[in-house]
Amino acid sequence: MKFTRPRLPYSTADLEPVISATTVEYHYGKHEQAYIDNLNKLIEGTEYEDMALEDIIRKSEGGLFNNASQAWNHIFYFFQFNPRGQKAPAGKLADKIDEQFGSFEEFKKKMNEAGATLFGSGWVWLSSDDKGQLYITQGKNAENPITSNLTPILVFDVWEHAYYLDYQNRRAEYLNRIWDLVDWAKIEERYGL
Ligand code: MN
Q1: What fold is seen in the domain 91-191?
Q2: 94 CA to middle of ligand 1, Å?
Q3: Rounded Cα–Cα distance for residues 137 and 66 (Å)
Q4: Are 57 and 147 in contact (CB under 8 A)?
Q5: Section 51-73 average pLDDT
Q6: Residue 141 contacts residue 66 (beta carbons within 8 Å)
Q7: Residue 19: its pLDDT value, please?
Q8: pLDDT tens readout for residues 80-96
Q9: CA 122–ligand 1 middle distance (angstroms)
Q10: 0.85 cut: is pTM over it?
């Protein structure tokens, strides 16, 4: 099997009480494993077999795109969390957020709004272009800003499987609380400017 599910750098209970151990076990353990298994089956014996995951996302469509992108998106989502991480942006990223959104609080409101108003399943992204300009976008289903030539730096999963066990239909509450888990040292590293 080509792609594997990387081991998380924290234990499944470490994200509690914001995200329960059960949600991490199902969401990363089972949903993500299924996307990776499907991806591996779909690329077997095809031109995609030896491609990097990002290239598969750029070049594929349909079922392969959906499974490849979901595989990538979940790794990106779970690896941005650290309950003992840096609680707010600093340096150039903090300055850019203030410049474009007014303040960190206003920026969080915009992300939460984008997450709450996305109809159905998908992702809310913060990305940057090659000049460091920031973009908040909604992605339906498996959509990923990589296909628009943007560099993703932060993402919230708003598929129901991400929050339903812990918050039921209260997506806005999940979005309000998930900020406590984001490690801004990681987000700054992804911003890379
Ligand atoms: Mn998910």
Answers
A1: minor pseudopilin epsh fold (3.55.40)
A2: 27
A3: 18
A4: yes
A5: 98
A6: yes
A7: 98
A8: 999 999 999 999 999 99
A9: 8
A10: yes
